[in-house]
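Figure 2 data, in text form.
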Amino acid sequence: MLTRRHFVATSAALFASTGIVQAQDAVGFDADVVRPDPMGDNPWGIHPRFMPTVVEHRPGLSVGDLHVDPVAKYIYHIQEGGTAMRYGVAVGRSGLQSPGVYTIQRKVEWPSWTPTANMIAREPHLYAQFAGGVPGGPDNPLGARAMYLYRGGRDSYLRVHGTPQPWSIGTAASSGCVRLVNAHVIELYNSTPIGTVVHLHAPRYGYV
């Protein structure tokens, strides 16, 4: 069981080198919960720590930005008043993560999905069958919503999106994208405008 003491200690060690850190938690966020989000029920059976939670962050972070912690498996949406909304996510598998700063330049409800040529070449047994694309819907790998990340004016092919596989939340399971359960990505999508800055942080230490 992940105790608060263990979480504070491992998070403090992890983010001492990110440059946007508070001593207690990942990416400058306080491990002490300010308040849980009123979404309440957890029909997906994900670990309670991955449910939407309001946490504190240290001064200096830009309101509206998103920060993805690939080790603790969280995405943080910076709010007014020194707080952030935190959601559990799944992130890219080892070797498939692309740390950097991106902007959301496109948003789509119930998006279609087509695996990239690199995905098909790397794992044809998984992706070749979908080369023609998958229409939007509840079984689509991008889930209910997708936010498309650009860098230098070009599509990075990375997304913050939903998933029909809620059991993957809290793991390194994707080909580089950031997944949330559909209810959570809809909430984030509705509060995240085009032009939002997204920070994908590097995994500097082992997973907690």
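Caption note: The CA atoms of residues 30 and 56 lie 5 Å apart.
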